[in-house]
Specification:
Length: 274
């Protein structure tokens, strides 16, 4: 990103070091500014290969933020000039940033206070993947069906299933998007049993000689998903006695791909009041 230096408001309080909870790529800092206390600084270290995103939520349109790369001393954005309330950048290398939330003192009467919430996220491709889903079967039903979607950021979804010896595992993938595939790994032997991108089929089955756990990964090439869209699917997983295969039934066809956000959002929307 261009390194043109942007003027930063002066007289900020001591910077707050931003931290993230384990497993959560987002954190939120809540504060306020006034005529007398016009800015607050926050420092955050972003990891290499991750995207840093900053969102400012406030009812006061006179509150802005700037971002400065402390490593090369470049000021990257001033939202008073851009008019935006969100900003992001990808980090090829680890870097430390200072985020300054500020208000022009002359825009606030003496004694008035405006509140804000600063949402800071840093995420990579792995952070965007959904949690692994354990396949569960209902009593007297040898089939389970899961529905989901993938997009250019969250390109895969893992499912695990445990089978007893003497059973047959069958997997069917149903989607209107022909670029969706699945592969099955035997977690006991760490062997890939099938990759339908290579096999050219959307169904697969195999007998289970000994009890084991399988991982089924539904995935898509990111280049095959236009930005802002998702590819929906239904995954059918069956387990039955090898001598007596059972029909899966007719699965509901996934809906036409829907618009999906291009970047993950915080778990909840801040309610900053001014």
């Amino acid at each position: 990103m261009a390194g043109a230096c942007l003027g930063l408001p002066v007289a900020a309080s001591q910077a707050v070091a931003v931290t993230f909870q384990a497993g959560n790529p987002w954190t939120q800092e809540v504060g306020s500014v006034s005529h007398e206390d016009a800015s607050h600084d926050y420092t955050v270290t972003a990891e290499a290969g991750k995207t840093l995103q900053v969102n400012l939520v406030s009812r006061d349109p006179n509150i802005f933020f700037t971002v400065k790369n402390q490593d090369d001393r470049n000021a990257l954005v001033d939202t008073m000039k851009t008019g935006a309330t969100t900003w992001s950048t990808q980090n090829a290398a680890a870097a430390t940033y200072t985020i300054r939330v500020y208000v022009q003192p002359e825009a606030m009467p003496r004694g008035s206070v405006s509140k804000y919430a600063l949402q800071i996220g840093q995420y990579g491709a792995q952070d965007l993947q959904p949690a692994t889903t354990e396949v569960a079967f209902q009593p007297n039903n040898p089939w389970a069906q899961m529905t989901g979607s993938v997009n250019a950021e969250a390109t895969s979804h893992d499912f695990t299933v445990a089978l007893d010896a003497g059973k047959t595992l069958q997997v069917n993938l149903i989607s209107q998007n022909t670029n969706l595939h699945f592969k099955v790994d035997d977690l006991s032997s760490n062997k890939t049993l099938v990759d339908t991108a290579e096999a050219g089929t959307n169904t697969w089955s195999a007998p289970v000689a000994s009890a084991t756990n399988f991982r089924i990964r539904v995935y898509i090439d990111p280049a095959a998903v236009p930005p802002g869209t998702s590819a929906q699917y239904a995954l059918q997983v069956g387990q039955y006695a090898s001598a007596a295969p059972a029909a899966a039934g007719t699965a509901a066809q996934p809906a036409t791909p829907a618009t999906a956000a291009s970047a993950p959002a915080p778990a909840s929307t801040a309610g900053a009041n001014g």
